[in-house]
Design a protein that fits this description.
single chain, alpha+beta, Jelly Rolls, eight-stranded antiparallel β-sheet, seven-stranded antiparallel β-sheet, globular
């Protein structure tokens, strides 16, 4: 009887694993097929010998963007993954960013991933990098290398003022260098992992859209930035409840 129990348990685990794999979506991001451009321009391109998608703000969006604090962050432009709704699960990708030629000195090469994007394309959660901060000589800048933000109510300058350091952290990063990121989302909790590290770089325990929010996923460039994305993987299966 014990052997039979073990057999059925193993079969059940294999079935669960197969279902999880079936739900996992992989996007090489070597073309714009299946993507919706919102205030963004995108084209296949290679960076450091690896193929991906080069994404910038559209010329119209770039020319009309003012340089207020609210508009120097991601959230003005997106490349939305069509036909996909995300609530809980795991998002992985390789991303890179750098200031565009002639960008203002305050430009950081913003590059990130937005998720749970609502139909208004304004309400969302996101994690992003400031690649030029990663090896800056100023420690305060280094402390602002990675960021969590939620538009439109919780941009970085509000959280930085009201809860300094809670939604930002340091990680080693460089402009125009591929950086692997992994975002784990469960309810109102999220963790950002960078460079394949076992420990999270940034932990957020109060996602601003709440525990049950669902929405689209998008590649998110910032103004005055040239960004690259490749190998996006989305696994919507719930995370291990014991974590």
């Amino acid at each position: 009887m014990l052997c039979n129990s073990n057999f059925y348990l193993a079969a059940a685990l294999m079935l669960l694993s197969a279902n999880a794999l079936a739900q996992t979506k992989r996007y090489p991001l070597q073309s714009t097929k299946g993507l919706r451009l919102v205030n963004a321009s995108a084209e296949p391109a290679a960076l450091n010998g690896k193929k991906g998608l080069r994404v910038t703000l559209s010329p119209e969006a770039e020319s009309s963007a003012s340089q207020t604090a609210a508009q120097r962050v991601t959230g003005e432009a997106f490349v939305v993954i069509e036909g996909f709704e995300f609530g809980d699960g795991v998002i992985e990708a390789e991303i890179a960013g750098a200031p565009s030629p002639g960008a203002p000195p305050a430009s950081r090469g913003f590059v990130g991933i937005a998720f749970r994007i609502q139909s208004d394309l304004r309400t969302l959660e996101s994690f992003y990098l400031r690649p030029t901060n990663g090896r800056a000589d100023d420690q305060e800048r280094r402390n602002h290398t990675v960021q969590y933000a939620s538009s439109p109510d919780w941009p970085f300058f509000r959280t930085r003022k009201e809860t300094p350091s809670k939604y930002e952290a340091y990680v080693d990063a460089q402009p125009s260098v591929w950086t692997k990121v992994r975002i784990e989302v469960r309810g109102s909790h999220a963790r950002l992992y960078v460079h394949g590290q076992e420990q999270p770089t940034l932990i957020v325990n109060d996602l601003k859209l709440g525990a049950h929010a669902k929405g689209a996923i998008a590649l998110s460039p910032g103004p005055n930035s040239i960004t690259y994305f490749r190998n996006l993987t989305v696994a919507p299966a719930p995370l291990d409840k014991t974590r």
